[in-house]
Amino acid sequence: MDLEAVLTAVGADNAILLGISEGGWTAATYAAEHPERISRLVLYGAYRRGAQARPGYDPEEDQALITLIRKGWGRDTPRFRQVFTSQFFRPDADPKLIAHFNEIQRVSADPETAAHYLRSCHARGDGTKIFRQLNVPTLVVHCQDDLAVSADVGRLLASIIPGAHLVLLPSGTHYFPTDRDIVTKVVAAIERFVFQLQRN
Predict the structure, then answer these.
(1) How high is the pLDDT of residue 197?
(2) 106 backbone dihedrals φ, ψ, rounded to 5°
(3) In this structure, are strands 38-44 and 15-20 parallel, antiparallel, or unpaired?
(4) Which of 106, 152, 155, 183 is at 20 to 30 A from 44, Cα to Cα?
(5) How far apart are CA 47 and CA 158, in angstroms?
């Protein structure tokens, strides 16, 4: 696993893992398999079921999105990537932030890689067993009005992880926050979680 290679390369023991969105699944899987190497786990906007395992999944719509990615992801115009971006940001979001997100998508992966990545994430089944096996202190952070992964999903995730703490943020973005007030709340929540456990 790439994550294990990185932790080994930097000599990380008792690491604090932060998993954002689908990265939460990866982080939780590693923490469940290697609790001796992970001291704490922070899950932001994470979920326990891939798209195909959720109620209301539409395979035709999913395939259409994958086709759009394959055909238009790498083009100079952001209109194809905007279809994907709109799932993460509200219409009143900062235009510069949306433009930045669109550009990050373009430069981070070619069309085939982006399509494969989305397909593999959506094909994940039900990870309830993985999250229930976690034996490390876990903080679940979720936005109250998350467009991509509802707050109810975050609440449910926190309820199935033994001893997990839940923090709901007054925000609607699935992307890691850039608003100063929200960022301050996220940092404060993580600091409380980490240092309180250290004191205990």
Answers:
(1) 59
(2) -65, -45
(3) parallel
(4) 106
(5) 10
- Residues 121-137: tens digit of each pLDDT: 888 889 999 999 999 99
Residues 83-139: tens digit of each pLDDT: 778 878 887 888 888 888 888 888 888 889 989 988 888 888 899 999 999 999 999
Give me the phi and psi of 102, to 5 degrees please. Answer: -60, -45
**Dihedral sign of CA atoms 37, 42, 44, 45 in order:** positive
What sections of 18-58 are H helices per DSSP? 23-33
Side chain identity, residue 44: Y
Where are the extended beta strands (E) located within the chain? 15-20, 38-44, 138-143, 165-169
Three-state SS for 66? helix
